[in-house]
Amino acid sequence: MAKMWAGRFSKEVDETVNAFNSSIAFDARMYQQDIRGSIAHATMLGEQGIIPKEDAQAIIAGLQEILADIESGALLFDPTAEDIHMFIEAELTKRIGDAGKRLHTARSRNDQVALDIRLTLRDEIREIRALVQQLVQTLITLAQQHTMTILPGYTHLQRAQPVTLAHHLMAYVWMLLRDDERLADTAKRMNYSPLGAGALAGTTYPIDRRQTAQLLEFTAPVPNSLDAVSDRDFCVEMASALSLLMVHLSRFSEEIILWCSWEFKFIELDDAYATGSSIMPQKKNPDVTELIRGKTGRVIGDLTTLLTMLKGLPLAYNKDMQEDKEAIFDAVDNVKLCLRTFDPMLATMRVYKETMRAAAAKGFINATDCADYLVKKGLPFRDAYKITGGLVAQCIQEGLTLETLPIAAYREACDAFDEDVFDAIALETCLNGRISEGGPSAEAVKQQIAAAQAALAAAQ
Predict the structure, then answer these.
(1) pTM here?
(2) Fewer Cβ in 10 A, N or C end of the chain?
(3) 436 and 292 in a common domain
(4) Catalytic residue numbers, as ranges
């Protein structure tokens, strides 16, 4: 394919350089957005009288025909084309003749590609947000089913205090709602049109940038033409939001992996979302969650790629910026893949309530409540803490728990203890006594669920 820019050059570009320079292998996915942007640009050119209206109409009809042919499979991408922009323009000119050559009037590939990637990522954010919101709904549904499923809460991976599975799941709901909000916020800042900035310094043609921005549903044009073509902050911001989303999925995945192990056995994944071993017939591996952990590093790497690519670039456009698409598209694709797999995996998992309850009964996770019992009897907390610590040490030495330790041992440690201590340290009492906002009691969790449902409805 002859190069659109070949006039300045006296010889053909080396084939190796051609292949090195080409981006159609990864920017072809933007064909819809490229055509959408070109239709808006041609519409504006015709209405401003920059090109004849009949040429603008022919361009629009030709572009619509090309779009239909690509989507039907009648038109295949040319792997030798330099990029999707040149491929579509060359195909248009082949189909409608000289009118097609007028499309690039008052436009550069610099503002064209900046436009295409904004349009593409705007579409991708909508899709990713829908997947995040679906996962949030799945977690809320699970939480509603497990407001009384007692689970040991951990710090330092040591049993700490009693919570419920619902309370634990709701922690991830709030993380994901923040992820959704970050993506929405990114989309707002992304939603400005670079079209009309030209190569870097605008154009001498009487274009109407506000018309093209409106046609493409942007808030407004980017105010500065240099910034319009050289800005990739929106790619970095999106990659950052996606990286943090993946970190949240990875943390949850780590817990799923632990909970599936025989050492915990709190849950079991459905057979459709686990794999086996080639040599050990007893194995049921949580590969989905392990892959999510691994892909998190990949998405974080994409963010690092974008930051590193941009950090030394002078204004305005530089060819380095071609690397933006592979990095951000890789992040987008992996996040969507993980969300689409993680959601049904959670929805179909089996919860072993009895195992969770048995684990919560061990590990002295009611020790804080025992200390609080003494505080309510009038002791300073630090004294109560020390007394309870001594009782825990005695239980460990004698193979007992705080529930099975005789009342005589309690009274020997402190005469403030009475028979009602056993009610105070019962797991259900410990749990439902935590009535502070955001806590694990059934009532507090139900309030969280209602607040999360309202937040989700507002986001949709």
Answers:
(1) 0.92
(2) C
(3) no
(4) 156, 277
